[in-house]
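tool_log.txt
---
The assistant was asked to compare two proteins side by side. It first ran the structure predictor on the initial sequence, then on the second. Raw inputs and outputs are pasted verbatim so the downstream comparison step can read them without reformatting.
(1)
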Amino acid sequence: MTTKYRNLFNDTKIGKLYIPNRLAVAPMTRVSAEPDGRVGPLMGEYYEKFASGGFGLIITEGLYTDKLFSQGCRNQPGMASLSHAESWKPITNDIHALGARVFAQLMHAGALSQHNPCANRTAGPSDIRPLGIQMPFYHGEGPYPIPEAMTQQDISQAVEGFAKAAHLAQLAGFDGVEIHGANGYLLDQFLTAYTNKRQDCFGGSLNNRLRIYKETLKAVRKTVGDGFTVGIRFSQKKVNDTNHIWDEGESGAAKVFELVRQYGADYIHTTEPEISAPAFEGTESLSQLAKKYSGLPVIANGGVTEPEQASQVLESNQADIISLGKTALANQDWPCAVKKNRLLKKFNFGMLSPHANLECARSYCQENPSLSVSDKS
């Protein structure tokens, strides 16, 4: 084993949970589930290869949380029923047998929903059409519809959905859950002033716009108990607005990160285009601000491909764990490859064309036989 990047392979803890190294797989939507939200036939091998490839922690793609308005796209996996949970058990068992940990990311798409057989409309904080267009690699087409403004009962049902999904994730054998509060989806829609024009206790001031985060964290923690790991993901950028910056700057970030510590989160997961870039003019990175104001372990994601950069982020105390996205798709054995000083493959968007599902990725690899075994997933 190369000793150059030894800090990547030190163990750590999140809450009460032991993590065997500092390398995680970031959540990435793969639209490969059965139409009813149960695990699809290619998903087991896909997730297990990350564990056998040496990642200490795997965070699933976003799992929808209820059968109301939460589903975001066709063939998205769910955690909204016992049958969904049961379908994940073989995967969580196999990941544990390989020595890794696995968290379920819980997601409500809100106004960015592109497909939902449970509803003929979308719902969000306010009746404002989202920016941008639907994502074609997730089977979307055209502009997003104008959502219905959620009632307080709708909000309560969404919060309850997160809590019930967290309990189902426990039953499925997950080691923890990550609440998706980033990237323009429902919770982030409440946080963002231009998508939240409400006049009630969920809109207006930053404290009000954060209320749904507080209620979701409290409900999840009450449901799963103190011993189960609960995290939350934040970003400034959105899938439909890649230029967004939080209006309140560092003072707002301080409120965000202090709140999640206060209401029971065990960790924060930040994602930005560049992991070490200043979050605001003249400030530290978003992951550094999360560590500074929460005091919690931080998982950081953002453009890392090479072990030297990952090692430097850890060495400079910008984060506690590095999560890898696209480079992990190209190198499902990234940790093992780094240990053995093997050449890493570059990610190619052909793996996500025409759709970001596992069948298209497999076809791409078959048509490009020069790819290594670790790419064929």
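(2)
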Amino acid sequence: MNDKTLQFFDTTGFQQDLIDWYHANKRDLPWRMDQDPYKVWVSEIMLQQTKVDTVIPYFYRFMEKFPTVYQLADADPQDVLKVWEGLGYYSRARNLQNAVQEVVDTYGGEIPANPDELGSLKGIGPYTKGAILSIAYNQPEPAVDGNVMRVLSRILKIEDDIAQQRTKKLVEAYVRELIPEDDPSSFNQAIMELGALVCTPKSPACLLCPVQEYCLAFAEGRENDLPVKSKAKKQNKIPYVSLLIKNENSAYIIEKRAEKGLLAGLWQFPMVPINEIGWDHLENWILSEYGLEIKVSEKKGELKHVFSHIVWELEIYGATTHQQYLTDERLRFVYKEELQAYPFPVSHQKMMTYIV
């Protein structure tokens, strides 16, 4: 791989064959109905770390609830999290709402078509910026995600580690040379679609690939060796005891997480870092942490929840309290039928099956 890689590359043929294939084979996705920059933006944020099939129903619900930037800007953040509930990576939703509020306040509700202005909005990195500018505004800007990295690593036989930032910059530079001025929207979507449908991480369907003749990795039989990617760090496992605490009125205690950090602003059942506290001190820890006197009862079940960097190992226990009032502002008494009004992370939604 060197600076002369594209010197003898048939860029025009590659562009045409890729775009022709895309128009004939692209999936019928709701955010492709038009080039509305708001819809493109919402879809791209949802698609980060999440599969297309999972995103589609969320996209429909989100657009029904918040059809324009104005509705999203004015929404209660808890309502936004509730619509996002189960999609994960909740900071995406918070950043999206904050950025939309800036669009309304600073740009009169018009999503900027200027790269610097768009890139300054919260949560919009180089990929999302490129996707919005190319797909919605038809500007020849690279939008390099994992699919694009994989496709071009094979097409151009890039042997550098794609986990490295410099490799991403290299691929962005190649996309900038390959992207056509007249139809950047179709080109960027086509290369993403190719990575999703044909040039897959394992067992790529090379015999069905519309740009097979341009692929240097395929020519050398190395399509399964590329891209090169260093292994991620091992996830840290953290054990917790999660408590389903109810009082004599059968009201359960839920806790609002901090407004910053993991799962910020969501609700959960109280969690005890059991390795730090120890079983003998569990009830005392709850008293000192929340001013709450409880009695732990039977074990209800176990759950494991995997994040990108950590794993929660959750043991779920029932508990009771005689208290009718709460002094800790993080806590709230709610009845079973009221739980659905609050946004919970997936792991704690699953715990509701133990509530009778």
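---
observation on (2): The CA atoms of residues 247 and 324 lie 7 Å apart. The chain has 15 helices and seven strands.
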